[in-house]
Amino acid sequence: MLKRVMIMRGAAFALAALLFGAGIASTAQAGGDPAFIRFGAGYYDINDDEDAGEFHLEYISDLDWWIFTPMVGVMATTDAAAYVYAGIRADIYLGRRWVITPQFAPGLYHDGDGKDLGHIIEFRSGLEVAYRFDDRSRLGLTLYHLSNASLDDNNPGTEVVTLHYSLPMNSLFND
Asked: What is the rounded CA–CA span in Å between residue 24 and residue 43?
């Protein structure tokens, strides 16, 4: 299990590093993206037998911290697990429409009736692929890993795949 997690993290890091180089040259594609409210649903624990439905809500800021954008969110499963997190993301634009976004967020986890991940502190690392519409809203797919990074001897981790929609905040308040 640990070997599979390390391979997955290594592959995600290598992809992020490769895309990072391409992304620096394409930051002009962003054109000052607005803040977003992102909501979606997915499949929790795709790599094990304690699967559940997953629902999430995020706020993605329009602040720029070098190449990073801050985010905060909450996730809940149909097994009453919950995760509250804050982290960073880096949009990499592949042309005008496609956006690849590596992301990382530490947070607090409660297992409810679901999978015990071993610790209250969990780390989320993921990769999002999204299509950007003319109004800058996005429809995307994210694969992320959630684990406690060996803060506890019990560190099963889990993988989650989600489908989500990112709605520009400015579209909520336009007359």
From this structure: 32
Terminal CA-CA length for the chain: 52
Report residue 63 CA to chain centroid gap.
Answer: 17
Q: For the whole model, what pTM was predicted?
A: 0.81
CA distances from 111 to 55, 80, 81, 83, 117 (A): 14, 7, 4, 9, 7
In tens, the pLDDT along 104-151 reads: 999 999 999 999 999 999 999 999 999 999 999 999 999 999 999 999
Quick one: 67 exposed, middle or buried, by C-beta within 10 A (0-12, 13-18, 19+)?
A: middle
Q: Tokens for 145?
A: 């890993």
C-alpha to C-alpha distance for 37 and 71, rounded to whole angstroms: 10
